């Protein structure tokens, strides 16, 4: 084998270096002279490329070594760039002059048998003592394992990108579907609400004229009365259906407003007993309400609690057996909750019926029964209960009866914020004839009692009360109070509706109206002031603020009407 040209120096070191290069099995070492004639072809090159050294030494990279030929051709091309000659017939592969002669390349080696494998090859020029290039050294290693890892990583990255893209597309589709569903729900709710309101106008005429005909003089004949009874029965049922659909639409569209405050259940039970009693008596149903050893208070909307209880009680009466019983119980529920139960001893429900109880418009096979119904009431009941932070459940056994229960958040009895009342209230020395009149419109008995206690301590005021908006408007028109104090969430007509009626009537437009409500968010207060309330007070009552607002309202009344003294 021809020895490679090396710079002059220690012969032992040169021999040791040549021996190490020649015997390295893990790296292919190919050295050429400046013209590309192979001078060294080591053991590693033989193992990797399948050629013996005898086949290639003193040859210009024969055509079969391929990438070895390419490497040497690149080195020869670089030599050309350096001004050196290349042997005739050698096909040089010229590459960018911007790259230096010494470099590392990722190439494909072609073995003698034609098989290929990736390699990493370092090309280094060999120089003499005068820095003249006298040859090239090509050190190569098999890059198959790395390439396999890179290929696997690429495939993994590709799959990950595809999965991420698919996930993004799925998320986009889900978001679009959610938005479409919300839009459809809003459109449905808006449609139901609009239709419910539109149906009330003709229904008002139907029910109104039917009642007029029924009360005519002379009275209608028996046959006519039967027809009128059917018209009225169908009309009132249709009105119930419209009201329940409207409730459901408002709940689903998020338009239901809650005025939650501490309220006693005793007053609710009394009201419910008065309302359901006639229906129970008509059907021979015995109503049993609890005799409570202590008063229970819950944090809820009084109007909505009454609506929930009336629905549960009316169902218990309607679907009971003739001469049956409906029992109401009240006690502690889960921690921090109060449980109210309504139990009947009617036919009961099967497990399948219990599972379908809260599906809209599902009457559980009662469509052809004697009792009219919409299949909406329990759905509304459940959603209203949950909106108040409560829960609802049912237990039933076929043949023995059913118990519906609701749990509401327990609350303490409403109290005034602790204040030094004696410093705030006027001494009882004024002439009663000079007292100004305060009209308080409120449906919550506990709140009425609290305000009554406060006004009793003010000798300059006398109090009128009304438990709903209609009665409050009538009292305002009849008694011309100096100041009106009004709850917002009133039954029948809201506080805003009452205020509008009072403002539109010249006889009451001058009366200052104060709002007193449990709706205490900043937007609630802003909305109240925009509507025209003189002040918007929030519950629980702050005595200092309350008295100050009354004084301001009385001064306003004096300035604008001269009535208060």
Tell me how many strands there are.
17
**Stretches where pLDDT falls below 50 for ≥5 residues?**
1-6, 62-69, 75-101, 417-430
**Helical region count?**
16
| Count of domain modules | 4
CATH homologous superfamily of the largest domain - what is it? Histidine kinase-like ATPase, C-terminal domain
Through-space gap between termini: 130 Å
Largest sheet, in brief, is:
5 strands, antiparallel
Q: Cα-atom Rg, whole angstroms?
A: 48 Å
Shape label: elongated
Question: How large a portion of the residues is in β-strands, by DSSP E?
Answer: 15-25%
Q: Overall pLDDT, averaged?
A: 78
Annotated CATH topology of the largest domain: Heat Shock Protein 90
User: Structural class of the helix and strand makeup?
Assistant: alpha/beta
CATH architecture level-2 label of the largest domain: 2-Layer Sandwich
CATH secondary-structure class of the largest domain: Alpha Beta
Give the strand order of the largest sheet, numbering strands 1, 2, ... along the chain.
2-1-5-4-3
Helix content: 40-55%
Question: What distinguishing features does this structure have?
Answer:
Helix Hairpins; 565 residues; Sig_transdc_His_kin-like_C; Heat Shock Protein 90; histidine kinase; five-stranded mixed sheet; 16 helices; Beta-Lactamase; alpha/beta; EC 2.7.13.3
3D structure, described in words:
This is histidine kinase. Pfam families: HATPase_c, HisKA, PAS_9, Response_reg. Keywords: Coiled coil, Kinase, Phosphoprotein, Transferase. The modification 4-aspartylphosphate is found at residue 487. There is one protein chain. With 565 residues, the protein is α/β, with parallel strands linked by helices. It has four domains: 11-142, Beta-Lactamase, CATH 3.30.450; 149-252, Helix Hairpins (Orthogonal Bundle), CATH 1.10.287.130; 260-409, Heat Shock Protein 90 (2-Layer Sandwich); 421-561, 3-Layer(aba) Sandwich (Rossmann fold). Helix content is 46%, strand content 19%. It has 16 helices and 17 strands. A five-stranded antiparallel sheet has the order 2-1-5-4-3, with helices on both faces. Strand 1 and strand 2 form a beta hairpin. The model is unreliable at 1-6, 62-69, 75-101 and 417-430 (pLDDT under 50).
């Amino acid at each position: 084998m021809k020895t490679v040209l090396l710079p002059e120096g220690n012969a032992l070191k040169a021999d040791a270096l040549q021996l190490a290069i020649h015997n390295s099995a893990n790296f292919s070492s190919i050295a050429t002279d400046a013209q590309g004639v192979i001078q060294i072809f080591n053991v590693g090159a033989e193992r990797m490329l399948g050629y013996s050294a005898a086949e290639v030494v003193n040859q210009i990279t024969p055509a079969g070594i391929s990438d070895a030929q390419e490497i040497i051709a690149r080195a020869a091309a670089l030599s050309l760039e350096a001004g050196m000659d290349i042997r005739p017939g050698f096909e040089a592969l010229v590459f960018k002059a911007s790259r230096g002669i010494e470099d590392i390349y990722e190439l494909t080696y072609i073995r003698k048998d034609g098989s290929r494998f990736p390699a990493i090859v370092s090309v280094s020029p060999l120089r003499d003592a005068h820095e003249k290039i006298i040859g090239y050294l090509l050190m190569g290693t098999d890059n198959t394992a790395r390439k396999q890892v890179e290929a696997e990583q690429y495939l993994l990255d590709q799959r990950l990108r595809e999965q991420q893209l698919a996930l993004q597309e799925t998320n986009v589709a889900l978001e679009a579907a959610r938005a479409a569903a919300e839009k459809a729900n809003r459109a449905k709710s808006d449609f139901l609400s609009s239709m419910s309101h539109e149906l009330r106008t003709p229904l008002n005429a139907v029910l109104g004229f039917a009642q007029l005909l029924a009360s005519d003089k002379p009275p209608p004949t028996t046959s006519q009365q039967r027809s009128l009874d059917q018209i009225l029965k169908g009309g009132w049922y249709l009105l119930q259906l419209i009201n329940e659909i409207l409730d459901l639409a408002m709940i689903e569209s998020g338009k239901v407003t809650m005025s939650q405050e501490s309220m006693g259940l005793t007053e609710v039970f009394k009201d419910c007993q008065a309302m359901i009693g006639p229906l129970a008596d008509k059907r021979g149903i015995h109503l049993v309400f609890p005799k409570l050893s202590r008063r229970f208070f819950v944090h809820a909307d009084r109007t909505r609690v009454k609506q929930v209880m009336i629905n549960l009680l009316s169902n218990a009466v309607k679907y009971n057996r003739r001469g049956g019983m409906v029992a109401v119980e009240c006690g502690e529920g889960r921690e921090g909750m109060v449980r109210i139960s309504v139990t009947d001893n009617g036919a009961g429900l099967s497990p399948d019926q219990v599972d379908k109880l809260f599906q809209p418009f599902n009457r559980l096979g009662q469509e052809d029964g004697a009792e009219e119904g919409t299949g909406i009431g329990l759905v509304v009941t459940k959603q209203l209960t949950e909106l108040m932070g409560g829960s609802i459940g049912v237990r039933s056994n076929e043949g023995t009866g059913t118990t519906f229960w609701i749990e509401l958040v327990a609350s303490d009895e409403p109290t005034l914020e602790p204040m030094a009342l004696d410093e705030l209230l006027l001494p009882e020395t004024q002439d009663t004839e000079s007292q100004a009149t305060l009209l308080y419109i409120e449906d919550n008995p506990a709140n009425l009692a609290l305000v009554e206690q406060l006004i009793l301590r003010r000798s300059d005021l006398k109090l009128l009360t009304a438990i709903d908006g209609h009665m409050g408007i009538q009292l305002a028109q009849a008694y011309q109070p100096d100041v009106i104090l009004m709850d917002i969430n009133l039954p029948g007509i809201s506080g805003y509706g009452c205020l509008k009626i009072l403002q539109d009537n010249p006889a009451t437009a001058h009366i200052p109206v104060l709002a007193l409500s449990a709706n205490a968010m900043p937007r609630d207060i802003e909305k109240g002031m925009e509507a025209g309330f003189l002040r918007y007070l929030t519950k629980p009552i702050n005595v200092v603020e309350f008295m100050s607002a009354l004084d301001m309202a009385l001064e306003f009344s004096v300035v604008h009407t001269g009535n208060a003294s």
